[in-house]
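Appendix B. Chain record.
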Amino acid sequence: MDLKELYQEIILDHGKNPRNLRKTENFNKDAKGHNPLCGDNVHIYLKLNENKKVEDISFEGHGCAISMASASIMTDLVKGKEEAEVKEIVNDFLDMIKEKEELQNKILNEDEKTKLMCLSGVKQYPMRVKCATLSWHTLTSAIDDFQKIVNTES
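Structure tokens predicted for this chain:
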């Protein structure tokens, strides 16, 4: 199996069987995101402990396979990480999906990086970049307590 097939398999798996698709109990941060161009909607629920570590994260919503897979992968990768690490992972992902070839952070292990790199192909399709990044921008909004709905067109 070549890398492109592996990436497609990961996206399809997470798109069809999203991880953490539920509402976190006792969440203390949340945010909503919307992509009006393709109708993706996401609501991120985050539970940070007193040390600002992600105890739990989940999402509700609906959208295309890229959007759902991205949210699923994101929630898997940031669970258990500290807030500062989460922000570094988010920024690294957004840089990679828009311009850089590879992920730069040292926080993720190789398997985690492979999962995240499977979304790198969307940079060839500018409209799909918004699908892949919606949940990530929404997570940032939740962490920063920015109460406005994240909109890919604003």
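Further analysis of this model is presented in Appendix C.
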